[in-house]
Amino acid sequence: MKTTISKLSKYNGEEVTLNGWVYNMRSIGKIWFLILRDGTGLVQCVVVDKETSPETFQLESSLTQESSVTVTGVVRTEKRSIGGFEVGVSKIKVHQISDEYPISKKDHGADFLMSNRHLWLRSKNQNAILRIRHQVIKATRDFFDNNDFILLDSPILTANAVEGTSTLFELEYFDRSAYLTQSGQLYGEASAMAFGNIYVFGPTFRAEKSKTRRHLTEFWMVEPEMAFCDLDENMNWAEKHVSYVVQWCLEHCEKELKVLDRDTSILENTLAPFPRITYDEAVKILENKGVNFEYGTDFGGTDETVISEEFDRPVMIHRWPSEIKAFYMKRDPNNEKLALGVDMIAPEGYGEIIGGGQREDDHDILLSRIKEHNLPIEPFQWYLDLRKYGSVPHSGYGLGIERTVGWICGTKHVRETIPYPRTMYRIEP
Ligand code: 4AD
Ligand code: MG
Fold it and tell me: Among 133, 163, 169, 221, which is best to mutate for testing ligand 1, by the most ligand atoms less than 8 A from CB?
């Protein structure tokens, strides 16, 4: 029976055929062991002189790490073996003998590993991280689908800036220029006026010149947008969403979290409701802890970490100085200086995972904000239309997939949380 390593427990005592790659080999004379990797797991395959043909037994001397093989043999329990099973080999078919594999068990530098990302993906930790990424995306989709949100895609090629003009990737678009989208939000707002509750999910692009462990130039964002929704209801969705994703991963990624040696105590705590504090309250936390911080500016990575240390789960910071927030944010009716924005900060130093807020829904105010931000009016005409034809209070947010995966996995650098990361200095492999 052809199967995969993850399903071996179903075939105890039976003969199976496994396709995979040689992960490791060791020998004790008349017996040798092949640790097989197939992307779903690892299993020890035992090759005994008397139980195989001479051709198979002699492969010991020619097989190399990452050679591709098909192994046939009988599954049996072996408590001491990885996964609790091993395969007593009857036959090995070789597809290709691998050249000397550049990634060995010894420690390699980050730069070397990133240059070999196309191969590094085969490693145990990378496999665990990207399996968790898959589950984060699945849980996110399930969460919105189960709550009757409709997935509506936003375009990648756009004419407008969303999050400031300094991080736009500009490209030639026939006889004019276009930008790679920084966020699907503006289209999400139009879609919400058509469908009620929607979400956008796709890659977004920012020409980030900062070389931090939290920034990529291409990252994936899920952006729900809700018609007839204010800032408080927006925060209700955000905390429910993040709790759902984290609890889902705890339940479905136990094996992967173990591979990563992740202490899951804070993840277990991650249940709604989350604490909600204003920007002013967050600044007080910094002041009380003796951090030198200028009121009215954005929090840096270390500030976020200091604030998050006050809480045992993610914290939501709302009501920000309007000058440091985007043009589309609605002002607090009780204080014109504040924008109804919200950021969610992950615990344990993983920083901002969500940015969002309530949107300005008045046509004339929005128009004046676009002008104040020195943005061209023409490409925003369609966006302004939304405030002319049945404008309603509405809100939404964007959750960065890579930062969320980084936090759940306990991976300090976001470059390991996406299969093929793009940063200022790297577009290969
Ligand atoms: O806070 P941001 O810039 O918000 C927006 O783009 C809104 N338009 C979203 C909305 O309301 N629909 O980005 C949202 C999230 C951040 O909290 C962070 O998790 C992630 O996107 N993010 C990045 N992740 C990796 N690399 C980058 N360069 C990122 N920039 C933002
Ligand atoms: Mg932000």
Answer: 221
Q: Which domains does the chain have, with CATH numbers?
A: 5-96 (2.40.50.140), 117-417 (3.30.930.10)
SS (H, E, C) the chain: CEECHHHHHHHCCCEEEEEEEEEEEEECCCEEEEEEECCCCEEEEEEEHHHCCHHHHHHHHCCCCCCEEEEEEEEEECCCCHHHEEEEEEEEEEEECCCCCCCCCCCCCHHHHHHCHHHHCCCHHHHHHHHHHHHHHHHHHHHHHHCCCEECCCCCEECCCCCCCCCCCEEEECCEEEEECCCCHHHHHHHHHHHCEEEEEEEEECCCCCCCCCCCCEEEEEEEEEECCCHHHHHHHHHHHHHHHHHHHHHHCHHHHHHCCCCCHHHHHCCCCCCEEEHHHHHHHHHHCCCCCCCCCCCCHHHHHHHHCCCCCCEEEEEEEHHHCCCCECEECCEEEEEEEEEEEECCCCEEEEEEEEECCCHHHHHHHHHHCCCCCHHHHHHHHCCCCCCCCEEEEEEEHHHHHHHHHCCCCHHHHCCCCCECCECCC
Q: What's the pLDDT tens digit per position in 244-279?
A: 999 999 999 999 999 999 999 999 999 999 999 999
Our mutation pick for probing the ligand 1 site, out of 219, 223, 401, counting the most ligand atoms within 8 A of Cβ, is 219
CA distances from 53 to 35, 50, 110, 228, 343 (A): 19, 8, 43, 71, 63
Whether this model's pTM surpasses 0.90: yes
Q: How does pLDDT run across 174-184, given as a tens digit for each residue?
A: 999 999 999 99
Site residues for ligand 1, CB cut-off 6 Å? 162-163, 183, 185, 206, 208, 215-216, 219, 221, 223, 352-356, 396-398, 400, 402-403, 414
What is the position in ligand 1's atom list of the atom closest to the CA of 397?
11
Q: How far is the CA of 324 from the centre of ligand 1 (A)?
A: 14
Q: What is the pLDDT of residue 104?
A: 85
Round the average pLDDT of the chain to a whole number and report it.
Answer: 97
How far is residue 386's CA from residue 396's CA, in Å, rounded to a whole number?
Answer: 15
> How many residues in total does the chain contain?
429
Cβ contact 171:141 at 8 Å: no
Does the pLDDT of residue 106 top 90, yes or no?
no
